[in-house]
Structure formats: C-alpha cells, structure tokens
Design brief:
There is one protein chain. This protein is an all-alpha fold and 197 residues long. It is 79% helix and 0% strand. About 4% of the residues have low confidence.
Length: 197
C-alpha cells in the first residue's frame, strides 16, 4: 500500500467513524425526545403528588430527564422505561421533600384536582366531576403517608404491585397490604362523608 493509499484509507475510516457517531448521537436524541414526550405528563403527576407545587414538580421532572441524559449509555439496558423513570422522579421528589420540610403533609389538593379533571363533559357535569375529584383527593390526603403513596401510584399512575414495589423499594406483599388498608380507609372516609350529607 502506498503512502497516499494509506492516507486515503485513514481518511475514509475517520469519515465512516464520524458518520457513525453522528447517526448514533441522532438516534440517542430521538430516543430521549420520545421519552420526554411520552412520559413527562406521568412524571409531572407523580412529582406533584408529593411536592404539591407546580414549579417544584416541573423542576423535578426536568432533573429526572437530566439524569437520564447523563446516563443515556445505559438506556438500552432498561427493561421498563416507565417504571424506571417514575422511580427516578420519585427518588428526586422524596429527597427534595426531606430536604425542604417546609410544606405540611396535609397540603391543599385544589391544584391536583385541577390537574385531574374529567374531559368531554358539559359545564354542569364538569363542575360536579371537579367537585367529586376534589372530594376524593381530600379523602386521599387524610390517609397515612405510606398508604397514600401506594394508592396514588396504583390509582393515578396505574402501576402494578410489582412496579410500585420497584418504585418504592419495598416488597410486593407490602404494597398489596398497604393498598388493602388504603382502599378500606378510603371506603370508610367516602361512606362517612356520604352519611354526613
């Protein structure tokens, strides 16, 4: 091989590597953009359910995606991206809540009620649905913290017992027993409020 052929061969190899790197980076960016569009709403609801502040919840979601960006090399190894992302944001919000301790556990749920309105209803039905949501969420707020956490992940985020156990770092049987207690407590609270009316 002549010197010019070696230089040309090296240039072609570098060009191939650069094209490959550009294509790989573009694919990573597309995957991350897909994660953001698919899961940002879910992560926001999880963050808001703990932090009770819209801007804090948005910051937590942004931090979660920044962590994903820093660890994007392992993204292909993740089996269930939804649960993985929820666990990341859950850890972020719990850490923030532990650090701040400025908000009481029984914050007003009016903002969460606004976030979860029913759609496709007339004005009267929408008002009734919003009142019902607010009432149910107020009952959820009365639950002990552990029961409230599993109920919110189960009912609002529709996670399975296995997924909740992964997010919270507890056993699946603990999740099931907490869900059982939460549902019984909720039934009692809702029945009590109906009898008061």
């Amino acid at each position: 091989m002549s010197a010019s052929q070696a230089v040309f061969s090296g240039w072609m190899e570098n060009a191939d590597n650069a094209a490959y790197e550009d294509a790989r980076q573009h694919a990573e960016e597309e995957a991350l953009a897909g994660l953001v569009s698919q899961y940002s709403g879910t992560l926001y609801r999880v963050a808001y359910s703990v932090l009770r502040n819209p801007s804090d919840a948005e910051d937590a979601v942004q931090e979660a995606f920044m962590r994903v960006l820093r660890h994007r090399d392992t993204l292909s190894e993740v089996r269930d991206q939804r649960v993985w992302l929820i666990r990341i944001v859950w850890n972020i919000v719990l850490d923030r809540k532990r650090r701040s301790k400025t908000r009481p556990e029984t914050d007003d749920v009016a903002e969460l009620a606004r976030v979860l309105p029913a759609g496709g209803l007339g004005a009267d039905d929408l008002a009734v649905a919003a009142q019902h949501h607010a009432h149910v969420l107020a009952c959820v707020e009365q639950l002990p913290a552990k029961e409230r956490q599993v109920l919110m992940l189960s009912a609002f985020e529709e996670l399975t017992s296995v997924e909740i156990a992964t997010v919270l770092g507890i056993t699946e049987s603990s999740v099931r027993s907490r869900l059982f207690r939460a549902r019984n407590l909720m039934a009692g609270l809702l029945n009590h409020s109906r009898s008061v009316r």
